[in-house]
Amino acid sequence: MRPLDVIKEAEGTQLEDESSTVTTLKLLPPLNDAEMRDLESSLPCPLPAEARELFSYCRGLDGGLEGAFTDIVQEVEFSGLGDGFGLEEIFPHAVAIVHDGAGNFWVIDLVMDSTSWGPIFYACHDPPVIVYQTDSLAHLISQLLRLGNSPWESELAEVADERAGRVWLENPGVMTHEQCLSSGDADLEAFARSLDETWLFVDLRRPRLGDGFSWGRYGARPDLLRRHGETRLFAYQQQKSLWQRLLGR
């Protein structure tokens, strides 16, 4: 289904939280012509057709969502929340579309050849991790709506409540500089050659739900983060100890 189909089907439905408070799902107004032009001018790619038709109908979900969607979601604006996201070293053209009210966002990672309003990642600061959610806005919306009724379970909650912690604790899928150089993958090898052995690498070119990396493992500093052009290859630098720095190692 298209994102617009999911929204039209859900509009006006009743959402009930765990305290039995009922809310009617309402939509935010569409983008006007000027807002649509402003959005288009800010993107690295043409506005995808699925996004244009959705924004011509609505830009997001009306307020008061923190009750309807438990404590996972507070604000939803599919055309972008407009407050700025940061972490340009990871997502230089991020569009933040969902906010949990605690400084964490679901963001779209757009590149020059993007043809859809995706993929979508969960960007968390506590713990400081990036977690893959989905490549489909329609799927994200359907999972968002699952938070609005019993049993209040969805892949958004799974990523925010479980997968983010797993990425932080287990640090899955991380590759060393040496592993990248001997991988036989031209992009990985080129990325590794541009950095040194103090960097660790993560490949999110073909991610599955819950894949990600600990962007702040060695400090929440932009200079410790790298991305290989527009490919979804990422790296973060291991901090040297004081003794290593004194010895110049």
- Global outline: globular
CATH class of the largest domain: Alpha Beta
Radius of gyration over C-alpha positions, nearest whole angstrom: 19 Å
* Sequence of secondary-structure elements: HEEHHEHEEEEEHHEHHEEEEH
Round the mean pLDDT to the nearest integer and report it: 90
- Classify the oligomer: single chain
Give the N-terminus to C-terminus distance in angstroms. 54 Å
Any idea what the CATH superfamily of the largest domain is called?
SMI1/KNR4-like
Low-confidence stretches: none
How much beta, percentage-wise? Answer: 15-25%
Number of β-strand runs = 13
List the helices and strands and how they pair.
Layout: H1 3-10, E1 14-16, E2 22-24, H2 33-42, H3 49-55, E3 60-61, H4 65-68, E4 75-77, E5 94-99, E6 105-109, E7 120-125, E8 128-134, H5 137-146, H6 155-170, E9 175-176, H7 177-181, H8 186-193, E10 199-203, E11 212-213, E12 225-227, E13 233-237, H9 242-247
Antiparallel strand pairs: 1-2, 3-4, 4-5, 5-6, 6-7, 7-8, 8-11, 9-10, 10-13, 12-13
Give the gist of this structure.
This protein is of the alpha+beta class and 249 residues long. It has nine helices and 13 strands. A hairpin with a 5-residue loop joins β1 (14-16) and β2 (22-24).
How is this structure best described in words?
By secondary structure, this protein is of the alpha+beta class. It folds into two domains: 3-170, SMI1/KNR4-like; 175-247, no CATH class. Helices cover 30% and strands 21% of the residues. It has nine helices and 13 strands. The strands form three sheets. Strands 3-4-5-6-7-8-11 form a seven-stranded antiparallel sheet. The longest helix has 16 residues, at 155-170. The radius of gyration is 19 Å and the shape is globular.
